[in-house]
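Subject: Sanity check before I submit

Could someone independently write out the C-alpha cells for this chain? I want to compare against mine line by line before I put it in a report. The sequence has 283 residues.
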Amino acid sequence: MSRGISIFSRYYSFLGNHYPKLSDGVTILRLTHETRGKQVAEYIGAKFNPKNGYENDLCIHIKPTNLDKVGDGDYVDFSDSRRDLIDKLRSRPKIKVIAHSLCEHKYLKERLPNELVHISQQHLNWERDVRDRKGVTVGGYIGRPSRVAVKINREIEDRLKGIGIKWVNWFNWSSRQDAIDFYKNVDFLVIGGHGILDEMNFTAVPTKMINAASFGVPSIAYWRAGYEEFEGYYAHFQEKDDLLSEVERLKDESYYQDKSMKLMEKAEEYHLSNVAKLYLELK
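---
Independent answer below. Compare away.
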C-alpha cells in the first residue's frame, strides 16, 4: 500500500487487589500494547503513537476505551476489549474492526455491521529457537497471578509431584525474553480452568499454546471456545486425572517428538513475518 500506517495504543501497568502479591517487582503489563502495538509497528515500519503527521495514514487503534479519537475508516483492534465497546462500534459503522482470533471474529460478525478482518496474534519466538531438552520432567504455567490461577496451579503442582514432575509457575515476568526462557525450560504447558465450560468465552485466545508450539512444547488445556483455531494441536483436560494421563503419554519419546514437530509446523503460521503481511494488506 502507498500510504503509511500509524498504530495507537495506550500503555499501562497495574497490580489490582485481585492479584495477590507474589514477590517484589511483579509487574502486570498490558500485553496488547506491546504485542499488537509496539512489536507490530516496529516490524512493519509503522509509526507508533505519533503526535502528528499521521493524518493521511491508515490508523489502527489498539483496544481503545472510547472512540473519541477514532475516525471513520480507521481500524479498531478489538483484542478482547470490554463488551461495551461493541455498542460503541455498532453506532459507528464506518469504523473497521480487527479481531485477533477466529472465535472473536465469529462473535463480532454476529453483532456488528462494521467491516471486520481477522489478524491473529503472532508468537514470541521470532528467532525460531529450538529447545534442546530431553525427556519430560518439567511442566509449567505462565500468566497473570490471579487468586484463581494461583489456586489452580497449586492443585496441579500437587498432582504432578505424585508422578515425578517438577512444576514451574512463571508469574513474575515482564519481558519477551523472560517468556522465551520459560518456554525453553519446560517440557509441556498447562492452562487450567474454572470448572465451567463457557461456550461463549470468545475472549479466550490460544496465544500461550501458540507460543509453546513455536518451541515444540505441547499444551494441555481446559477447553475454551476461543481456542477453536488451535483445535487438534493441544490436549484437552477437564479433570486432574485427564491431565496426568496426557503427561504419561508425553513421556513416550516418539509420541513427544512427533507432536513437537507438528506443533512447530503449525506455529509457523503465527510467526511475526507472516502476521505482518496481513497488516500490510489492510486498505
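---
OP: Matches mine. For the report I'm noting this point. Confidence is low (pLDDT under 50) at residues 13-29, 195-200.
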